[in-house]
């Protein structure tokens, strides 16, 4: 080995060490950014589920179960028309069950609208809030002894329940995907023989 070759070997080793260190730095940097982005996505999904879509979904399901229970009790498929003989029970259910659930949902929508998934406010959410406001006027009339109106003048938006259910399900799926990385899904697929 020639004496002149030693510095070249050391020089090459130093350059290789610097390149490997720089590559390690870049991998760490990009890995940290990807992890931070992943963590931020999971945090937003959790916030949307915990503060908006989760409570909205539970209150909506409870309202639907109660509504079907009332209809079953009355032997009806629809609440309309509300007959005079049914008015007392309708008022009881409206004031003690339906309006408290509506108030919860209205408050969630108004106070946490920034958590909606879409860029624009979905029309069904606006229609729901308008429906609830209409019922508030009806309840004030009832409190004054005026029973001429039995329902809100603004009808129930049928797409509201579909929107809430679909949004909740999509966010739960996204949460599961974010919580369980690709390796977990691959393992689960191999063990169970089906995709998650």
Helix content: over 70%
Which regions are unreliable across 5 or more consecutive residues at pLDDT < 50?
A: none
Number of strands: 0
Tally of DSSP helical segments: 5
- Rg estimate, integer Å: 29 Å
Structural class: mainly alpha
Largest sheet: none
Mean model confidence by pLDDT: 87
Shape: elongated
First-last Cα distance? 61 Å
Percent strand equals under 5%
Question: What sequence of helices (H) and strands (E) makes up the elements?
Answer: HHHHH
Describe what you observe in this structure:
The protein has 196 residues and is an all-alpha fold. The chain has a domain at 46-175. Helices cover 76% and strands 0% of the residues. It is built from 5 helices and no strands. The relative contact order is 0.09. The model has no long low-confidence stretch (mean pLDDT 87).
SSE blueprint and pairings:
Layout: H1 5-74, H2 87-111, H3 123-143, H4 158-179, H5 182-192
Features:
single chain; 196 residues; mainly alpha
């Amino acid at each position: 080995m020639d004496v002149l070759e030693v510095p070249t070997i050391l020089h090459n080793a130093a350059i290789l060490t610097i390149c490997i260190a720089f590559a390690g730095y870049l991998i760490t940097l990009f890995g940290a950014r990807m992890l931070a982005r992943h963590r931020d996505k999971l945090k937003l999904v959790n916030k949307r589920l915990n503060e908006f879509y989760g409570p909205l979904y539970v209150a909506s399901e409870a309202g639907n179960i109660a509504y079907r229970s009332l209809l079953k009790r009355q032997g009806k498929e629809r609440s309309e028309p509300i007959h005079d003989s049914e008015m007392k029970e309708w008022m009881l259910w409206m004031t003690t069950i339906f309006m408290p659930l509506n108030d919860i949902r209205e408050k969630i929508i108004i106070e946490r609208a920034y958590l909606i998934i879409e860029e624009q406010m979905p029309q069904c959410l606006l229609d729901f809030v308008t429906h609830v406001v209409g019922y508030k006027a009806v309840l004030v009339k009832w409190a004054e002894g005026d029973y001429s109106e039995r329902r809100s003048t603004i009808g129930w938006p049928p797409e509201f329940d579909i929107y809430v259910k679909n949004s909740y399900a999509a966010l739960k799926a996204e949460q599961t995907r974010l919580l369980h990385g690709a390796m977990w899904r691959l393992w689960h697929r191999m063990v169970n023989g089906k995709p998650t």
